[in-house]
Amino acid sequence: MTKSITRVKIQKITTSNSESNVDAATQSELSMDSLSRGGQLFIWSLRHWLVAIRLKQTPPLALRDAYVAADCSEGEILIDEIMSLIGVASKRHIEIRCCCKKRLSNDETLLLSCLRLLQAGEVDKAATALDTLMVPALSRAVCRIADQYRCLLMNAGLSLTSSRQFTVVS
User: Fold this and answer.
1) What is the torsion angle, in degrees rounded to the nearest 10, for the CA atoms of residue 93, residue 99, residue 100 and residue 106?
2) Is residue 115 part of a domain?
């Protein structure tokens, strides 16, 4: 577990005085508000898992109430397994942002994209995407756990794709 603490970090974003730099950075990032409830729960969980680690709390216990409220118990255990494996097998620092940030980091977006690929049945593409973050030998193990997590979300009615991404055109 301590190795995961050193490899996975909370990225504190510094804002510059130049609005163009801030605008360019945020245009390519997803907003928490644009995510489905399942996507929001996933990103919230990644961020709070890391906070729990920093506070020397047991992550599943810190996340439990949210998953009970979402009618998705056991999700907190799967998040702990996913994050622990990624932390141990990561090739580089993984950017997980502070809980208060409205925008997703590229790494958070990649992890969410992997879940969405699993939802679409694209296991090989999800594993290949994870290979950019972690040792390839363990990316399939993370995919198996992430797919169990995705199934829990789906059973609780929490999709990873948002209907807000679609508009009716007349």
Assistant:
1) 40
2) yes
> Is the Cα dihedral 62, 1, 50, 131 positive or negative?
negative
DSSP state of 18: -
Instruction: Round to whole Å and give the CA distance between 158 and 149.
Output: 11
Structure tokens at 135: 């040792």
Terminus-to-terminus CA distance in the chain, angstroms?
53
Token pair for 107: 């790494």
**Does residue 135 lie within any of the structural domains?**
yes
Vertex 163: Cα angle to 160 and 169 (nearest 5): 150
Residue 24 domain-assigned?
no
* pLDDT tens figures, 99-125: 999 999 999 999 999 999 999 999 999
pLDDT digits (tens, 9 = 90+) for 19-60: 333 333 434 578 999 999 999 999 999 999 999 999 999 999
Q: How far apart are CA 45 and CA 112, in angstroms?
A: 12
Domain count along the chain: 1
Q: Assess if residue 166 is contained within a domain.
A: no
Give the residue numbers spanning the domain of 40. Answer: 2-11+30-157
